Amino acid sequence: MGSAGASAFIGLDEQAGAVQDWFVKISFPLGAALACLAGLAAARAQTPSPDPARYGQYPIGYKEIVTRWLQDKLLDPSSAQIDWEGDPQPADLGTKGQHLYGYLVKFKVNSRNRFGAYTGKQAHGALIRNGEVIKGTGFGY
Predict the structure, then answer these.
(1) Per-residue pLDDT tens digits for 65-87
(2) Range of the domain at 57
(3) Full DSSP string of 87-120
(4) Is the pTM of this model over 0.90?
């Protein structure tokens, strides 16, 4: 039994070593990822919310606000196809030392021009403050 028992014992050791190697290879990246997620959650919890006195109230119905505003900006607003690019973010679109605070909504719009052809997706933005668009971006003005 001397040599047969020894080889079986070595085989178990090799299997245990392989399991340990696998565990080490998996546990380190998994632990690092969990630590990063915990750090992000803590940072997010510490991020102060924007001051409503400065930026206005968060525009919960921003899609409707922008869609209504586009009625006066597009030649054929009923043909508008809008791709929203995220939620509104606090922003200052002022220039030359002047501040213009609000929530910036970024979007792309594809609508028909005066010839009836679609223009392709054009990048735009709308700065909303207290439920009203106070500045547009990407419209050439």
Answers:
(1) 999 999 999 999 999 999 999 99
(2) 52-137
(3) S-EEEE---TT---EEEEEEEEEEEE-TTS-B--
(4) no
